[in-house]
Amino acid sequence: MAEVLVFHHGHGLTAGMRGFAEQLRRAGHTVHTPDLYEGQVFDSLDEGAAYAESAGFDTITARGVTAAEGLPAELVYVGFSLGVLPAQKLAQTRPGAKGALLIEACVPVSEFGAAWPHDVPVQIHGMDADPFFAGEGDADAARAVVETVKDAELFLYPGDRHLFTDSSLSSYDEQAATRVKHRVLGFLDRVE
Q: How many angstroms separate the most distant Cα atoms in the chain?
């Protein structure tokens, strides 16, 4: 089974994020869920984004990198939206990465290095009309990853919701989230 490090989105470590991690655990994987917000959970994405901005995106990313210290190198990194920053950085820069799952965000590979590591598979998930994922360049960055990385997949789901995978938020889309979960579990089974 895989060992997985899951980074939450801009609301914080919500019940939905904990629930996602628990689904992976029930499938037999070892899952770590560090809290990048030091215990704070925000009702609105605007409030969470304001906190992340005031703390500094570099600080949030550094908290994620610190969370990996002391864990085995052979991890699969999972990031949801804001959590993609530390997940993608670790997948690209920490030797031994087994894979990356980038959900509802993707930054250009050049943000963390010259190229994606050739031996690190990646899956990227987002909604095709999400104003953040599709409208702010993340989908374009994801397409660039798929064009240049041998073992990369991009899955687009119909809809305009951001954070559609978190069952504790009003933006939750059960059908799309279920498809993400099945694809994530298949990916983890393949890379373990």
A: 39
